[in-house]
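ok so i was messing around last nite and threw this chain in just to see what happens. nothing serious, just curious
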Amino acid sequence: MDLSINFRSLFKGVTDTLFGMALTQPESFHGAVRPIIEAQCGGDVVRGQAIALQGIREHLHVVKRHSDKFLVRFSEKVTYDGIRVPVAGRPTTPVGAGCGLDSNAEALEPFSYLYGFQMPGPVSVRPRSPGPTPFRDDQEHADLYLPPTFASVGLDIFKARLRAYRDGGGRAILLPGIVGMAESGGADAAHEEMRTLLEAFVPHADGFLWTPCCAGDGRVLEVGHVQRVAQLMRDIAGDKLNLLDMPAFEPPDRNRWLDLAGAFLSHGGGGLVVVRGLEVPKSRVPHSEDWPFTTAIQCGKSLAPYRHGAIEDARRAFPSAFIAACGGIHIADEAFDALGFANVIVENEAFTRFGPGLVPLFQNKIAMRVNFLHREELIDAPELTAYQRLRFASPDYCPPSPPDGTRR
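result:
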């Protein structure tokens, strides 16, 4: 899909400078780039994503120029050496690109210079083109409402892009989001599609994210089927990092949520992404009178309490599980707080709202807080993993903040 606006024609010799500002400064992205994309996408989230990704590919040289700030150091005084964590058996920075940010694996190379790891997808076996895909942005509450559907280029194109990236020497940690669709034959059909996707991608992937909420049939989230898919993922992917995408839940659904997580983890799954979004009725969507679906997926700032409660519940219930925190992480202190229960952070909505520039801000805060805890002799090494060992073992421990009490 071509860009609807020629940025070089519009901004001429300062295009790269402005793109660099949008890349690294959340306020520039939110105040300038995001409105331009929204104006050009015509209310279609898929088109908006395509415009953003084409822009980042066309400015790869600018992305490379700023890569150190994302992957190596925030400044001469703050490096990321102490906050690297293991993901799929490799040490990397703790902030990744969540599923849905690069749905069709178009940005594997540029994202490798910005994020510690990536979750391209979700992808299905057959291409899916549901037509115009509307969204609603509740700017007052910093929330986004998305349709309960998704578009996908399908297995063949997605696989070709993964293979081309690897053949070209790409070494990024890739955890593709995969969907076994149940529309044509229920849970059994979804299971066989999962097998097809796993076998196709396993040579090119470091692990997988199963996204059953996209499958089109609630039966795929029954305990028996979750166990069955977890075993399938283990049989095909072996010891690679296999994750389950978990939705947000209301308090009455807590026990069922934990049962599903436990079913996955006890039958070969390695971890969870918590939480993907909250399914809400059409009436909750802003300007719901012309929303064409009966439900929507709510993402954004309002998801923060759901995410925080869920990652704490998951850590207490499954102390050794790999947990990726997701959902409404908009400020750096929330990122540090999330890593008290989760191994890493992945985001989608936050980066579409504020841009990739959140990544170095998050990692700067995390590094500074870890260094503070070590100086105060509260952890035995100036490393994020040292803090996590303490916190995971004692979830009730509340780490002190630096004396200035800054919350940003």
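not much to say yet. Residues 169 and 364 are 29 Å apart (CA to CA).
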